[in-house]
Specification:
Bound molecules: pyridoxal-5'-phosphate
Structural class: alpha/beta
CATH architecture of the largest domain: 3-Layer(aba) Sandwich
Number of strands: 13
Oligomer: single chain
Low-confidence stretches: none
CATH topology of the largest domain: Aspartate Aminotransferase, domain 2
Distance between the termini: 36 Å
Shape: globular
Length: 359
């Protein structure tokens, strides 16, 4: 039987209908002038986000890094949450590529409150970097898909604007936040100068992200996309997959959230496992494995032996993500396997999986 792949919502493969849309895409040279399919995608993305314009890019790391770069010059600083993607999972590209530094503030499962930020903006002084930008992430990846409370977002963005800072939202999974809350993407986006979104996560496209914002900023973004090596020629081939995803796969994200609840219920039932945080809000489930059971990597390997793929994201932390290529039935089966794997280990059975000793 095929494994149930819960490692990430990036593992989805283009459906036959999406492949058809890709095969039929009308294309042009997007560097010389325009690619018509990419132009349609950028227009629709901007519309959904309530922004003037959008720029298509090959990855969310690039949309974030271009976003940070158009708001900050070398020697500037941005504020972000300690566990955010921009700071942790993009090789510090803001430092490597742009000479920008980050000021991190620790949230609760990725959630920040405006009171934590007051006083962080540096005064004008030749000794100091200049604080220019506030970044938020919604939903929060390391926070197990946690949704930023809307009122926190508004308060933080209002504070940032009053303080003269620009604002950027890493909305790789903003679609999930919108589906879960009923607060439309544009409602979230209107509080930020720029918003980055991914088509290749829960929406199921093979490639692509976009940065959206005011026209003038998107002109700058286009320049920096070229600078970072992301200007593409007949990009309608990949934009067609993203366009198909945007038009067809947003409304079904609630199914992924319901399936994540099935996994969460199994974790609650299983011996020696505990959800972190306790409530699952969207499509990401993170749980802690008690050390007496196994290490996270061992537990993930046990699950893999039973046909369930997950990711060990810390010494005792396992992550599972639901998406359009796993069905409700598969999630029920995965849940059963979680419970049946944890039970015997909690009862003292040794993990069969031999791993290198950890030092
Ligand atoms: C996946 C992700 C990104 C972008 O990742 P790429 O692999 O570069 O496309 C950015 N932010 C968050 C929160 C993500 O989960």
């Amino acid at each position: 039987m095929l494994p149930i792949d819960l490692r990430s919502d990036t593992v989805t493969k283009p459906s036959p209908a999406m492949r058809q849309a890709i095969a039929n895409a009308d294309v042009g040279d997007d560097v010389i002038d325009i690619d018509p399919t990419c132009q349609r995608l950028e227009k629709l993305t901007a519309e959904i986000l309530g922004k003037e314009a959008a720029v298509f890019m090959p990855s969310g790391s690039m949309t974030n890094q271009v976003g940070v770069r158009i708001h900050c010059k070398p020697g500037d600083e941005f504020i972000c949450e300690t566990g955010c993607h921009i700071y942790n999972y993009e090789q510090g590209a803001f430092a490597q590529l742009s000479g920008i530094v980050a000021k991190t503030v620790e949230g609760k499962a990725g959630v920040l409150h405006v009171d934590q930020l007051r006083g962080l903006i540096r005064p004008e002084n030749d000794h100091l970097v200049r604080t220019r930008l506030m970044c938020l992430e919604n939903t929060h990846n390391r926070g197990a898909g946690k949704i930023q409370p809307f009122e926190n977002v508004v308060a933080i963005c209002d504070w940032a604007r009053d303080a003269g800072l620009r604002t950027h939202l890493d909305g790789a999974r903003l679609w999930n936040a919108a589906a879960a809350t009923g607060i439309a993407e544009a409602q979230w986006a209107r509080h930020f100068d720029t918003v980055s979104v991914c088509f290749s996560k829960g929406l199921g496209a093979p490639v692509g992200s976009a940065l959206a914002g005011p026209k003038e900023m998107m002109k700058e973004a286009r320049r920096h996309r070229k600078l970072f090596g992301g200007a593409m020629r007949q990009d309608g081939i990949i934009a067609a997959g993203a366009l198909f995803a945007l038009e067809n796969n947003r409304s079904r994200l609630k199914e992924d959230h319901a399936n994540a609840q099935i996994l969460a219920a199994a974790v609650r039932e299983a011996e020696g496992l505990s959800l972190w945080p306790e409530e699952v809000e969207t499509n990401i489930v993170i749980f802690r494995v008690e050390p007496k059971l196994a290490r996270a990597a061992e537990f993930a390997a046990e699950l893999k032996g039973q046909g369930v793929l997950s990711l060990a994201i810390g010494p005792q932390q396992v992550r599972m993500v639901t998406h359009l290529d796993v069905s409700e039935d598969q999630c029920r089966r995965a849940g059963q396997i979680i419970v049946e794997t944890a039970g015997p280990l909690a009862g003292g059975k040794k993990s069969k999986v031999a791993l290198e000793p950890a030092y």
